[in-house]
Amino acid sequence: VQLQASGGGLVQAGGSLRLSCTASGRTFSSYVMGWFRQAPGKEREFVAAVNWSGGSTSYADSVKGRFTISSDNAKNTVYLQMNNLKPEDTAVFYCAARYGTSALPTQGYQHWGQGTQVTVSS
Asked: Phi/psi of residue 111, each to 5°?
């Protein structure tokens, strides 16, 4: 399983970015895709997850109402639309995959992509 994340960058507070994660290497219909982030000096934390049908999503409280996760089955790609970004959102964002159908469990991810840096200036 290969996961390729992209879309990070530098944005001012209040701005928006869209991250993409393209999966390859197998059929992902029974997988859940998640986004995690790690800020300098902090532990990696869960951000959002979605199953491939799009019928199950979950979000960290800190991003609810600002971030939206979605999946495009035809492109094997998951997106994280991030609006109203705050300086505290600055982190390396990672996409990950685990077997399952519900987006609720935030642990158990077996496959990880490389990170993409998101920097939000004040």
From this structure: -120, 135
